[in-house]
Amino acid sequence: MNTDSCYRSFEGRHRVIERLNDAHNREPIEVYFARMQYPDGSIKPEIVVHQSHADDPIHSTATARQLARAIMEAADEMDKLELDDDD
């Protein structure tokens, strides 16, 4: 998440996914929903997946499923907050 030009930021619940069956990388993957407000008042929502990169693939279907669930949960959280803002 780039907060360099951000005025305010909000992060939702952080979900931590442990890498299973991966002898080369034990670094957990973190998923969360964030919103940044910029000086012009605009708000940008995003889902952050930290510690996941194409050069470091996931080696376990169980880890992949946990990551998919975490991303879906973050998307649901994002949808709920965006709908609440419309009220």
Walkthrough of the structure:
This protein has 87 residues and is α+β, with helices and mostly antiparallel strands. It contains one helix and four strands; from the N terminus they run ββββα. Strands 1, 2, 3 and 4 form a four-stranded antiparallel beta sheet that branches. Strand 3 (29-37) and strand 4 (43-50) form a beta hairpin. The protein is elongated.
Give keywords.
elongated, single chain, 87 residues, 1 helix
Number of helices: 1
Q: Please provide the ordered H/E string of secondary-structure elements.
A: EEEEH
Number of strands: 4
Overall mean confidence score, pLDDT = 86
Name the overall outline. Answer: elongated
Beta-strand proportion: 25-35%
> Kindly, what is the distance between the CA atoms of the first and last residues, rounded to a whole number of angstroms?
27 Å
Largest sheet: 4 strands, antiparallel
**Radius of gyration, in angstroms, nearest whole number:** 15 Å
* Structural class by sheet pairing and helices: alpha+beta
How many domains in all? 1
The stretches of 5 or more residues where confidence is low (pLDDT under 50) are none
Helix content: 25-40%
Secondary-structure blueprint:
Layout: E1 8-11, E2 15-17, E3 29-37, E4 43-50, H1 61-86
Antiparallel strand pairs: 1-3, 2-3, 3-4
What would you say about this model in short?
By secondary structure, the protein is of the alpha+beta class. It has one helix at 61-86, and strands at residues 8-11, 15-17, 29-37, 43-50.
